[in-house]
Amino acid sequence: MSEFEAKVSPGTKHAAASMRGDDSVVEEKVRFFEKLASSPGTYSKQSAFHSYTTRTTGGEWFTKSETTRISTSNNISSPPVGFEAYTAKENIIQELPVEPSPVAHVPIVSSAKHANNLFSQSARTNLQEYLPQLLPTVFDAPNFDPIADAQALRKAMKGWGTDEATILDIITKRSNRQRQEIYQAFKKEFGRGEGDSEGRDLISDLKKELGGDFEDVIVGLMMQPIEYEATELRKAMKGAGTDEKALIEILLTKTNGEMQRLVDCYNSLYETTLDDRIRSETSGDLQRLLILAVSCARDEHSFNPEKAHEQAMSLYNAGEKKLGTDEETFVILLGHAGRQQLLAVFEEYKAISGITLEQAVKSEFSGDLHKAILTIIQCMQSRPRYYAKRLHKAMEGLGTDDDTLIRILVSRSEIDLGNIKKEYETLYGCTLLSAIKQGETSGDYKKALCAIVGSA
């Protein structure tokens, strides 16, 4: 077994195999770093090294010889590695010399394309399994004409009755960037008021003409992604009762960069800050975890493999080994440690206990704190797999958790819904599309969900 294979987690052995003994790949990776470091717009070689490793390793360790070689020859320290591509996307967005998109979640795609273009054809061939890929299901529509779409939508909502088929066809088959252009075109074409009229607004018109779950899907797609998640948070804490499951799903699945943008958006939309709202709607250890999340307390850049055993032992002593459970120890570690550190802790815990930390948590915790801790563990291992499990839970048994179903499909459609589809089929033996078709949704609502998911 090579030094590289000995370090990577079991789930990435296929990547290690593709790297083993291929000196040409090492040379290509070194040349890529040098090219990236000298590109206009890159902050520094240190920053470039960080982006380079997170982009090419896809969340796993570099070989010691490669890091030593690059860091020594360029007089820089070894980078903090070990983030998934989408976990480290804010680093990549900031440091690769590309123009960021105005839509919050799009830059990773363009940045990934740019990074890929910097590789030679031979390197892309050698590393094709090794590079992580985010798989959205919704893309820019070809031959896009925002004015024509705006006029078609106005016609679909004018007069008696509503042409839901036209609305569905346009909204679900355009990217969010294109939908924002349609919104502006609609406002320009039909937003001029007549007399005392305030004019027309596309989202307001859609709300008037549509209803139920179909309305929620269409309106959700029309909103900017970050604003959509902010309104979902507001919805989860509005009125009598709190939807803790929604808070956990939205807040405990974010990187620090994603969280900061969400907090900024929420605070700009509502009078009460997100921090204050969470404190008023939740309590105890769940509140502590959520506050740590919105405070961006997770250390995403530190990795100390020697400390992992000690941390795993502290969790074992706080749970399985004692009568009762010391929840605070779990909250502090799981709320602060970065992904790579936690993955190492998970491996050490299994070696100490003989069972996984996830299995231990299921027996030691209950209620919302149990859900919150499992969410962190599962997301650190694989966000797409976590969302696949959430979707299955939303559709299994009698009744459908439509809020969860809509929220995940809308919010992940241009990020990694394709990855989620793959995980769903692996976990449950059927496609996500077939699960929706055979489920309890119906009518235009079902058609809209199927359109977002795309073909099997």
N-C termini distance: 38 Å
Query: In one word, what is the shape?
Result: elongated
**Low-confidence regions:** 1-25, 39-64, 76-131
SSE series: HHHHHHHHHHHHHHHHHHHHHHHHHHHH
Count of helical regions? 28
Instruction: Name the assembly state.
Output: single chain
**If you compute it from the alpha carbons, what radius of gyration comes out, rounded to the nearest whole angstrom?**
24 Å
Based on secondary structure, the structural category is mainly alpha
Question: What share of residues is helical?
Answer: 55-70%
Total beta-strand segments: 0
**What proportion of the residues form beta strands (DSSP E)?**
under 5%
Give the mean pLDDT.
78
The largest β sheet comes out as: none
